[in-house]
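Repro case for the chain-ordering regression, as requested:
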Amino acid sequence: MDRRFPFKVLEHIFSFLDANEDRNSVSLVCKSWFETERRTRKRVFVGNCYAVNPLKVARRFPKMRSLTLKGKPHFADYNLVPDGWGGYAWPWIEAMAARRPLLEEIRLKRMVVTDECLEKIAASFRDFKTLVLTSCEGFSTDGIAAIASTCRKLRDLELRECNVDDLGGDWLSYFPETSTSLVSLDFSCLDSEIKLSDLERLLSRSPNLKSLKLNRSVTLDVLEGLLRRAPQLVELGTGSFSDELDPEEISKLTKALSELKQLKSLSGLWDLLPEYIPVLYSVCPRLTSLNLSYATVQMPDLVDLLSRCSKLQKLWVMDMIEDKGLKTVALCCKELRELRVFPSGADLDEEDVALTEQGLVSVSEGCKKLESVLYFCVQFTNAALVTIAKNRPNFRCFRLCVMEPFAPDYRTQQPLDEGFKAIVERCKDLRRLSVSGLLTDKAFEYIGVHAKKLRMLSIAFAGDSDLMLHHLLSGCESLKKLEIRDCPFGDTALLENAAKLETMRSLWMSSCFVSFGACKQLSQKMPRLNVEVIDEHPPKTRPDSSPVERIYIYRTVAGPRQDTPEFVWTIHKNPEVGVSRLSTR
Amino acid sequence: MSISQKLSPFHHTLSLSLETFTVNASKVSLHLHLRMSESAAAENGYISLSEFSTMEATTMSQSDKTSENGLNFKATELRLGLPGSESPEPVDERFLPLKSGAKRVFSDAVNGSNKWVFSPGSANDAGSGSGSVKDHKPGVPVKEKNSSAAAAPASKAQVVGWPPIRSFRKNTMASSQTQKQGGDNNNSNNKAEAKSGPELCLYVKVSMEGAPYLRKIDLKTYKSYVELSYALEKMFSCFTLGQFGSHGGCGRDGLNESRLTDLLRGSEYVVTYEDKDSDWMLVGDVPWEMFICSCKKLRIMKSSEAIGLAPRVMEKCKSKNQ
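-- result from build under test --
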C-alpha cells in the first residue's frame, strides 16, 4: 500500500501553513514533502541576501509571489558598516525578473537599490503590487517615478528611512491618470518639496488609499486639504506641524482630522507646536499607534495628549516625556504593547535628569500587555530591572540602552549583571535583547543559561574576557543573530564555538580582540561560513596576530561573495590562495 | 579615508574594560586589564598604565581567573604597567575614587599631555599626538574615568555609532534643532533648542553624476575646504578614474591653494552645494564657517553642467586664477 499522501492532499494541508519557520521544518521531513512544500510556498523570506544564490531561490519556489530580503548587518544603521560594503539588490531583481515574472511583492531592508533595479522591477513584473524599501539607498526619485508610472496595479509604495537621491518632486505626477489602486504610500524620508497639486490629485483618484505618510516638507497649511480628499485613511503620517495658522485654518484642520473616523495610526508630527495639540484631540481615543518621536514637545503637552489615548498599543516618544509622563501612560494606556523612548539629545551632564529608570518601572507596572521595549536612559539600577522583570514576564523584546558606556548601577555601583539576570530568568519568551551598562562575564553566563528562546542579542562595551562569548555561544540555543562591539575578547571563544556559528544567521564583531589568524583558522575549519574581515585601515603587513577592525561571519551555501569592495576580505577556503585582495595593499 | 574615521580625532580608540569595580568605605578600586597577545603587545611597543588595586580586589580577580580553566586567560592577559616598571605604582588622579552619583564621562579623548594614549592605526590620525602610535592597533576599547565632573563636558568625545540611533533620526533631530535656533524664541522652554552645537553632526548627502549611490558625510568633521575636497576625492575617486586631478597622490602635503579651486579650474568635475535658499552654488566661494551653516546638500557634477550656476562665482574664480 502506498503510504504516502497524495500530492493534492499534502498541498491542501500545506496551504494552511503561513509561517516560514513551519514550512522550513516541513520541507526537511522527506523528499516528497520538500517538493510539495516548495511548490506551494508563496512568500519567501531570505534573512541574509548572501546566504544563498538568487537563481537557486528562484528555481526552488515556482509559485513565489512575495520576496523579502535583508542585506547589510544591523549595525549598519549606526554607521558601523562602511559605505560600499555590499547588499546589492540587482542580482536578485535580475534573477526574479528572468524566472518569476509573476512576482508581486518585493520587500528589501538595508540593501543597495539602484534606479536600474527599480526600472527593471517596473518592466518585468506585470502584476507588481508592493514595494517596501526600509533603510535602503542608491536610488533616486527617477526610479520611483518609473515604478509609479509603469506598475499599473501598484498597491503599496513605502520608502522607510531610505537614503534617496532626491532630484525633485514631480515623481508624484507619474502615477496613472485614471484611478489608482494605491493602498499605502510612504514618502516620509524624502527631502524635497512635492507639488501640492500633484498630491491632491493623486489622493482624489486613489479611493483605496488607507495609509499615507507625508514628508517633512509638506506644510501644515495644506494638510487640511489633503485630509479632505482622503477621509478613509487608517494611517496618517503628517508633514511638518509647525507653521503659523490663523484661527480659521486651525478650526478647519481640527474638523478635517475629526472626520478621519477610521484613523488608527498617527506619525510624522515634526516640530509639533504645543498650541496645536488640541487639534489632535479628536483622533486620540481611536489611536492604536502613535509616533511622537519627532515631536519636540514637553512633558505637560505630551501628558495632555496621551491621557486621551486609551486604546494605544504602540507608542514611540522622546525622553521629554520624563518619568511623570510615563506614569500617565501607565495609568491611561492600558492596552500598550510596545514602547520606545528615544533620546532627544538634551545635555546628558545635567544633574536632574527627568527620565530615569522609574519611568520604565511605572509602565511595566501599569501596562500589563507590554511586551516590547526600547528605552534610552542615562543610567539604571539593578533594582529597577528586577522590578521590571517581576512585573512583566511577558517581554518578547527588551532593549535597554544605558547611554553612558560602562555605567554601573548608579546607586550601588555594582555591574548590572543581577538586573539582566532577572530579565532573562523571568521573561521566558524573550526573543530579542540589547544590553548595556557595566556588565561582567557573569551577566552573559546568566543569559547563556536562561535565555533559551533568545534569537537576537546586541552587546556593546561589556564583559571582561572570552568567557563572555563562550557563555553565549554555548548557552543560547535559539540564538540566530549576535552583534557585538567594543568588547574585550576574541579568538579563543570564537574558535571553540565555531560549530555554533553555522546554526546562526550571522555574527558581527567590531572593535574586539579578534586576530587575523583566528579568522583564517575559523574559515578553514568551517567551510560553510563566510568569514569577512572589514578593515578600513589595513596594515602594511598582516601577521596572524594582528587584530582586525571588524568581522562579519555568516552561514551561506553560496560560497564567498564576488562583490566585496576593497576593504572587505573574505578568507579563501583554499589556504594556499590565502586572503583575497591582500596583495593590493 | 572613510567617513567613520573622520568623525573625531579620538574615535575608535582603545578602552580598557573594567573587570571589577568595588566600593568599600574608603576607596574605590579599579582593575584595568588589557587582553592581547603578548607578541602583538611587544610589536606595538606598548606603553601601558600601571594597575592598582586593593588587596581584596586583587584576590577577587585572581580567583576569577583560576576558576576559568579551559580558556587560557593568563597566557593572553597583559597587565598594564608604566614603561619600565614591573610592579604596580600609584596611578595618577584620574583613577581615584569617584563620588557615587558623580557623572562619569566616557571619553576616548586623552589629549597630548598623557603619554599612554592609543590611537587607531592610521597615519591620518594626526591629532592624537602620541609617539607610540603605530599603524596597526588592536581595536581595544579605552576608557578613561574622569574624576572631576567639571572637566566632563570639555572632554566628552563622540564614539562612532553610539548611542545607537539611526542616522535618519539623528539628521532629523539635528536639522530641527538648527531650525529652531534660526527661528523665533517662542519655544524657549524647549530644552533641546539650547543644546545644539559642537556635539551635533551635520550630515549632508553627497551625490555624483553617474555614481550608483549616494554618500553621506558629516561636515563638522572637516575644518577646511582642503580637507573636504580630499575626502570627496577619496570617496568618489573610483568613479572619476583620476579625473579629479592628476595630483591624486601628492595631496598630503600642505597646499598653497585650495584643492577645490584646482578642481574648479581644471578638471571635468565641479563640486556644488544646495544652500538654505535651495540655490545651487559652487563650493569654495564663501568662508568655511559660513559654508557649513548654509550647506544642505552636495553634488558633484560635470563642469559643463555647472556653467549656468552662479555665473558671478565662476567669474570670480576665473579672475582669481588669472
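Ordering looks correct now. The first strand of chain B starts at residue 17 and ends at 23.
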